[in-house]
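ARCHIVE CARD
Drawer: 12
Card no.: 0347
Subject: one protein chain, sequence and derived structure
Cross-reference: see card 0346
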Amino acid sequence: MVSHEGSDFELELRLAGRLRLLRSDGADITPTGRKAQGLLALLGAAPDYRRSRVWLQDKLWSTQPGDLGAGSLRQELARLRRILGDSRDCILADHGGLGLDPDRVRVRLDPEPGEWELTGEPPEFVEGLDIADPEFEDWVRDQRLAFSERYEALEPPAPKAEVRTRPEPPAREEKGLEPPSIAVLPIAVLGDHEDGAILATCLAVDIIGHLTRFRRVDVIAYATTTNFAGAGLSAAEIGARLGARYITQGTLWHMGAKMRLKFDLIEAETDRVVWSENVVNDCQDLFEIEAEIATAVAAGLMVEIDQIERARIRARDPESLAAYELCIRGIDEILRVDPDGCLRAISYFNRAVERETGYARALSGISRAHGFQWKYRWAQDRMAALDRAEEFALNAVDCDINDASANAGLGWVALYRREHDRSLAAYRRAMQLNPSDADILAEYADALKHSGSALESVPLFERAIRLNPYASDHYLKDLAHAYFIGEDYETAISTVQRMRRPRLSSRVLAASYALAGSLDKAKRTAMELRQVFPDFTADTWVASVPDRRPEDSERLLEGLKRAGL
């Protein structure tokens, strides 16, 4: 290892304990993304601070195809350089490899002075950095063992004469400045232990795999969580040791062809169960349905975590929020679907981008907010709003091509520009990146519906409803329209009646009643619609519906006209 002691450096990378990247003035610029931290750790631990691109790709994206993994590495490198700002050239890159400039970057492998005596034992190599990739898990495990042996050979610093105390824990307002982390503990097995143990492991590993696709949450590796199986520790204790905000605990009863899975999501700090799911199945081959169960459980976990995070962040002072929390606050505002909330959302998203340049999720949020200003006619210059929506959607994809929400945002803009093939391609890319995201699934179904594939969209809408019941009204509204396009008016009406707030779909309901021959109900629905939207005109609204086939829009207009709109 090259020695840099006594020299001046722009950046200092600390690998003992929690990974930190500091500027020469002491400013902490540690990236929040686990892949970015992993990339720094892989380079910092190299003998000459350099690794080949193929080697790095294999350690961080071993489960992705070669071209996709190479693209992921390029995007993470670009993201890291944006975080470094004026020091971006401290990362050296050529066609074959990447490295840290040894003349500008110092890597510290030993504990900080006084740190060892405070903890009572040597800190762990990149403590808490766990990435759900089997190759990285193997590498970091070997590194931690090697560095543990290295520390054992070192003498701890002698204690100072004065009495020292542990630093005060950070104030509560400073907690949660990064995306939440979750640890999926091994699932306990009752009944037929041999097959049940295999099924339980498959479920846990697949749930973790699906969770890693949600880039708004950090997932702790399964190899790490297995160390806590049967340890007799509380969720709060496990969460504190792993640095996890959420813990899952599951129990699998397996007897022959029958199984029951009880799965709990626990908020670690409070040791409180915040969500619970029971899955009962009777199947001759349980492993055939294992993947579907894992997808549903992972989606349910993320839906509940999103709800909790929004509520937690909503109660905090906006001035103290970090980039992640500003983004969540923006999402919370945009979900209100009102003009003032949309403006507040743009403000929060912009502040998130100011704090973390190239933050794809925030850029995608800005895109969607401008898109809503166009769609709901809140913007004075609607076409300018749609142009801005596309600009920010493209920027989000450029910043992180592997962000599913960014690709979905581009698909949304393309759909309302009536570029249907481009829209479907973007949504398919988003689905490939995260097939467990119910919102993306429903948006893809909506794009299919408007592209002339209404029947193909129906099972996708139903699956989205199962994955995220919180948003069922939004999905049911679009599903009813899919049945309308398929000329199944009775099913369209019954779908609207499944909604908690059927008025959200009063346009399609009025047109469905009219074309189904129930003119009295159609006119009554139209009157209710007029009370809420007195300026509504059927021609203007239908003109904004992005149907590929003119006959679909013409039939909708006919139904609305018959209803008296």
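Annotation on reverse: The chain has four domains: 11-152, 175-314, 318-435, 471-565. The CA atoms of residues 421 and 451 lie 8 Å apart.
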